[in-house]
Amino acid sequence: MTLVLEAAALGILTGGVYALMASGLTLIFGVMRIINVGQGALVILGAYLSFAFFRSWHLDPLLTLVITMPLMFGLGVILQIVGIEGALGYVFTTNYVQLRAWYETASFAVFGFHITYVYVFGFLLCIAILGALFLVLYRTSFGGALRATMLNRTAAQLIGVDVDRVSAIAFGIGVATAAAGGVVFGITNAFNPGSHYDLISRLLTIIVLGGLGSLRGAIIAALIMLVTEDITAVVISPVWATFVFFVILVVVLIFRPQGLFGVRVRDRI
Known about the structure:
mainly alpha; about 75% helix; two-stranded antiparallel ribbon; globular
């Protein structure tokens, strides 16, 4: 039972990090109606940027977000992702690297099991960034324009919303969240330029399960998937953990094709 509780706690904490990474992907889809398959590569780019500042200036990985998130936001506004993986391989080589920090392995005891600090910090980072994102979406005029564009792009244009500007900023926000997710991913996993292939498959699974374009759905789906995966790894076997991850998606889509919080196309019209 202790192992199951520990797995559940770890699943919630890591689920928060995956929710942060998936939020940018679902936000970009909601506004632009495109699936940004390069989001995984952008997460790895964010990890590499933090690694570069860590290696050159010995900055704490989490503190590098003060630099990397604005840089990634600017990249998202300007670029539509051209050749990122090749550029990363050229600059950093294809060797696996990993970010280092004191909280990478340090842990504390809760109810008889140990939780590593990095997962707690990552979860708190997720709450802070997603909380700020929800405030922007529901408490600002830009957020109203963004939600209008996500709901109906043509109607938003008719009422005076500059959808091109909204799309550019939304893409920038989506890429900035990749930087935040990337630094935690880089601390908890060794990575190289090809690491995004497995990552993007997991992020796509999360946003499809939650419902394309639903930020709330991405968060809840990430928590469900990661908790289930970690408990499966403890109760049954790690071999079955990833398999169960995708079985959940198939079962949900059989009974609810639009995902947990998605909207059917005919309901949107």
